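Technical annex, item 7. During the second reporting period the consortium partners agreed on a shared format for inverse folding records so that results from different sites could be compared directly. Each record opens with the tokenized structure and is followed by the designed sequence. A conforming record, contributed by the partner at site C, is shown below for reference.
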């Protein structure tokens, strides 16, 4: 997402890389591609361009740092939970969920 500014564009650009990496590490390409897409969406919570846009819309222009400090713990918590979920889907008891 950082390279293209768009999660959709990043998925199109790096999707083939994710699928190739999945084959190398023995993980489902579907799971790794979905993980890449979800991580891009998660990154939008703390992306500078989104923080600036939200700050302008809600009348907090110039207070992007405040928004970042308030959203970062949520982003980190979601990332931690998401990491555990993906691990369980790749190697653990939730592997039945991945085609």
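Designed sequence (site C submission):
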């Amino acid at each position: 997402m950082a390279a293209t500014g768009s999660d959709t564009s990043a998925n199109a650009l790096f999707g083939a890389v994710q699928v190739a990496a999945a084959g190398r590490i023995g993980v489902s390409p579907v799971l790794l591609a979905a993980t890449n897409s979800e991580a891009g969406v998660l990154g939008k919570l703390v992306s500078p361009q989104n923080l600036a846009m939200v700050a302008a819309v809600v009348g907090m222009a110039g207070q992007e740092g405040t928004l970042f400090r308030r959203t970062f713990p949520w982003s980190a918590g979601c990332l931690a939970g998401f990491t555990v979920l993906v691990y369980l889907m790749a190697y653990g008891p939730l592997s039945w969920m991945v085609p």
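The chain has four helices and no strands. The chain has a mean pLDDT of 87. All partners now use this format for quarterly exchanges.
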